[in-house]
């Protein structure tokens, strides 16, 4: 593993309606354990995941992924745009037992993309289908698969409409159960692929010259990873 001072980072937003399970999901991804009794997120909470980009290939390199868990309460809609700058990937979270939370993902996407000029589609109106190409990486996650097991087959098997429109992969999981992100599982492979795309988006852009970020991030993470 590289020294902490040499590790670059990228930013991923995690958005979706209040209560769909964003905090629980971020905890599972970053700590590989369930989060018991999460409290409602006010504003934003940031967790960091260590990621091996293109693991097992000659291009392998270590990165930190910041997962920005945005509180879903509608009462904070006007103030949360401050979190939407310099975004390199988006995780859209819906609750598989709550169809409305899936429909609302389009609103979340529009809210995020309209606020971030870096990821905006040249000022045009947001259409998820325009993100199927070489745009900001998106991953759709359906939570509470455990509670959704008895529901319509479509909610637990097929990809959701928003995932298809964005050309995004979709995971379905129970954030209370580590087996849903077990190494080598389909979910884990999809997540790894998404995180690799986020790194590519961040470091293949013209924001950076050469292989290094212009910033030194060592101070950010020294306490957390010592
Ligand atoms: N059974 C089950 N419960 C879950 C799952 N994910 C989250 N929960 C529960 O759903 C509730 C809300 O979860 P949170 O992670 O706080 O949801 P959130 O999206 O971060 O909510 P806000 O902070 O209000 O935006 C909690 O009681 C969690 O324990 C899941 O996959 N399965």
From TrEMBL:
One MF annotation (Gene Ontology) recorded for this entry: GTP binding
Stretch list, region Disordered: 205-226
Matching Pfam families: Ras
InterPro entries: P-loop_NTPase, Sigma_54_int_dom_ATP-bd_1, Small_GTPase
PROSITE patterns: RAB (PS51419), SIGMA54_INTERACT_1 (PS00675)
Keyword terms: GTP-binding, Nucleotide-binding
Record carries keyword GTP-binding: yes
Record function comment: Required for KRAS signaling regulation and modulation of cell proliferation. Regulator of KRAS prenylation, and probably prenylation of other small GTPases. Required for lymphocyte development and function. Not required for myeloid cell development.
The family this protein is said to belong to: Belongs to the small GTPase superfamily. Rab family.
Name by which UniProt lists this protein: Rab-like protein 3
Organism the protein comes from: Littorina saxatilis
């Amino acid at each position: 593993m590289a020294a902490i001072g040499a590790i670059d980072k990228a930013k991923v937003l995690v958005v979706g309606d209040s209560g769909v399970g964003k905090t629980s999901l971020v905890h599972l991804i970053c700590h590989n354990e369930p989060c018991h009794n999460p409290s409602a997120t006010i504003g934003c909470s940031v967790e960091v995941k260590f990621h091996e980009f293109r693991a097992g290939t000659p291009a392998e390199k270590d990165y930190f992924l910041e997962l920005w868990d945005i509180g879903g309460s509608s009462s904070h809609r006007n103030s949360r745009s401050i979190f939407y700058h310099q975004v390199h990937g988006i995780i859209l979270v819906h609750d598989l037992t709550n169809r409305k939370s899936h429909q609302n993902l389009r609103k979340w996407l529009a809210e995020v993309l309209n606020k971030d000029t870096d990821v905006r589609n040249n000022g045009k109106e947001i259409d998820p289908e325009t993100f199927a190409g070489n745009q900001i990486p998106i991953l759709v996650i359906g939570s509470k698969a455990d509670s959704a097991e008895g529901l319509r087959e479509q909610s637990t098997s097929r990809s959701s409409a928003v995932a298809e429109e964005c050309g995004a992969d979709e995971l379905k999981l129970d954030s209370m159960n580590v087996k849903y992100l077990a190494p080598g599982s389909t979910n884990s492979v999809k997540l790894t692929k998404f995180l690799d795309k986020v790194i590519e988006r961040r470091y293949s852009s013209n924001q950076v010259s050469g292989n290094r970020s212009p910033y030194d991030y060592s101070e950010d993470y020294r306490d957390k990873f010592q």
